[in-house]
From TrEMBL:
Protein name stated in the entry: Fe2OG dioxygenase domain-containing protein
One MF term in the entry's GO annotations: L-ascorbic acid binding
Gene3D superfamilies: 2.30.30.140, q2cbj1_9rhob like domain
PANTHER family referenced in this protein's UniProt entry, alphabetically: PROLYL 4-HYDROXYLASE ALPHA SUBUNIT, PROLYL 4-HYDROXYLASE ALPHA SUBUNIT DOMAIN-CONTAINING PROTEIN
Keywords: Dioxygenase, Iron, Metal-binding, Oxidoreductase
Cofactor(s) required for function per UniProt: L-ascorbate
Annotated Basic and acidic residues bias: 28-44
Species for this entry: Emiliania huxleyi (strain CCMP1516)
Length: 347
């Protein structure tokens, strides 16, 4: 309706006319702003991986101030100022990196690797049931340069990029990332992997042997963690299990969750533990440190420079899961995996 006075009607005072005009303009402005807000909300809801959704994904994990992170001299010291970095555990340190890869980069890695998959080697089918592919180094130069900035290492310290796929019901049982048969004090000192797709269900990465302040009662059926050898030194990782028997000398027999067992474990070698799960989210990186630096006194304590607290597993997949792994060595990688020439776009 026009704000001007109609012919024959009482004259409208100028001040009221101006106020009505301003009110109309204000209402139109608010309506326009509301429409714009609704459009933004609609766009946000349609976006499969919006900023808010990613923030919500990260909010389910602990957040330790990065100001508390400092090199301990035993593990690789990373770039704590790297964009998107979030600490979710300390002692041992575990980090998430949001948007480490873009959606396009994730999809391109999947395209590269898909035609070249082979069954994962090194484990029996009841331990690991995935497929994998190594990608030629020159095809992932930009990605490796990005990882090197995060990890504070030369590009040459990174293994060739690996891509793994887990179809429904596939898994990777509890394991450590250090390798056997390497040169003295040469092994993997950092693990960085990136989820290439979202998984609504299944496929979580679960850390199985994180330290806990819980007191033990040393009772039959109690959940405990101990070295697979049952000794204080030279083990292959702390694995979860339950106490099967308590012996007269105070030692215990332990049945591990993966079906193995060890007898007469001294109480000093048994401890409480906690677990931590990370759910696959496209583009998100996970970073931890499976082995000690060669310069660390702890590197000589356990086989293969192992940090015993980094035992982890890939939980059974419900949705198909794709993940890209990269590992860091103190010098040049001695796991000589030659990546395949995919002929696809370089990353």
């Amino acid at each position: 309706m026009s704000l001007e006075a109609s012919e024959g009607s009482a004259a409208v005072p100028a001040w009221l006319l101006n106020r009505q005009h301003a009110k109309a303009i204000g209402e139109a402005s608010r309506k326009k702003a509301a429409e714009a807000a609704a459009e933004r909300e609609s766009t946000r809801r349609k976006a499969p991986a919006s900023k808010l959704e990613k923030e919500a994904t990260l909010s389910q994990y602990p957040s330790i101030p990065l100001s508390e992170y400092a090199s301990d001299g035993d593990h690789l010291a990373i770039n704590a100022d790297f964009p998107g970095l979030r600490a979710i555990h300390r002692d041992p340190w575990i980090f998430l990196v949001s948007d480490l890869l873009s959606r396009a980069e994730c999809e391109e890695l999947m395209v590269k690797a898909g035609p070249h998959f082979q069954s994962s080697s090194g484990y029996s089918n009841n331990f690991r049931t995935s497929c994998e592919c190594r990608v030629a180094r020159h095809e992932t130069q930009r990605l490796h340069a990005r990882y090197a900035k995060l990890l504070n290492v030369p590009v040459g310290s990174l293994e060739a990029a690996k891509v793994s796929r887990y179809r429904r019901d596939e898994f990777f049982r509890n394991h450590v990332d250090v390798l056997s048969g390497t040169d003295f004090l040469e092994n993997r000192i950092a693990t960085l992997f990136v989820y290439l797709n979202d998984c609504e269900a299944g496929g979580e990465t679960r850390f199985l042997s994180l330290p806990s302040q819980r007191s033990l009662e040393y009772a039959v059926g109690e959940k405990v963690c101990c070295l697979s050898t049952g000794r204080d030194v030279d083990g292959e990782g702390d694995y979860p299990g339950v106490i099967r028997a308590v012996l007269e000398d105070g030692s215990v027999d332990v049945d591990f969750d993966d079906g193995d067992e060890v007898a007469r474990v001294p109480r000093s070698a048994v401890r409480a533990y906690e677990t931590l799960e990370v759910k696959p989210a496209q583009g998100m990186g996970v970073l931890f440190f499976p082995g000690y630096l060669p310069s660390s006194p702890k590197a000589m304590r356990f086989r293969n420079q192992l940090d015993r607290y980094t035992v982890h597993e890939g939980c059974v997949a419900v949705d198909e899961k794709w993940v890209h792994q990269s590992w860091v060595w103190p010098s040049h990688p001695q796991a000589h995996y030659d990546g395949v020439e995919t002929g696809a776009v370089g990353l």
